[in-house]
Write a structure and sequence with these properties.
This protein has about 70 residues and is mostly helical. The chain has two helices and no strands. The protein is rod-shaped, with a radius of gyration of 27 Å.
Length: about 70
């Protein structure tokens, strides 16, 4: 039996693939934009976490000294 093409299905598959590729491109663009903004400030997330941990331990030491 001969293959009967399903043009509507093929068109829908092409549109789905195009939309998925566009979403991935937008996601990569957003990630690079976020990375660029973090680099501009000069403070990364790990630096902020280290600073917060240092401040917390310093606060604990001052509270025990006062008692």
């Amino acid at each position: 039996m001969a293959f009967k093409p399903n043009y509507n299905f093929q068109k829908a598959e092409r549109a789905r693939a195009k939309a998925q590729k566009k979403q991935e491109k937008l996601k990569r663009k957003a990630e690079t934009r976020d990375d660029g903004q973090a680099g501009e400030t000069g403070v990364s997330d790990s630096d902020e976490a280290a600073t917060a941990a240092t401040e917390t331990s310093a606060d604990a030491e001052t509270s025990t000294d006062g008692a």
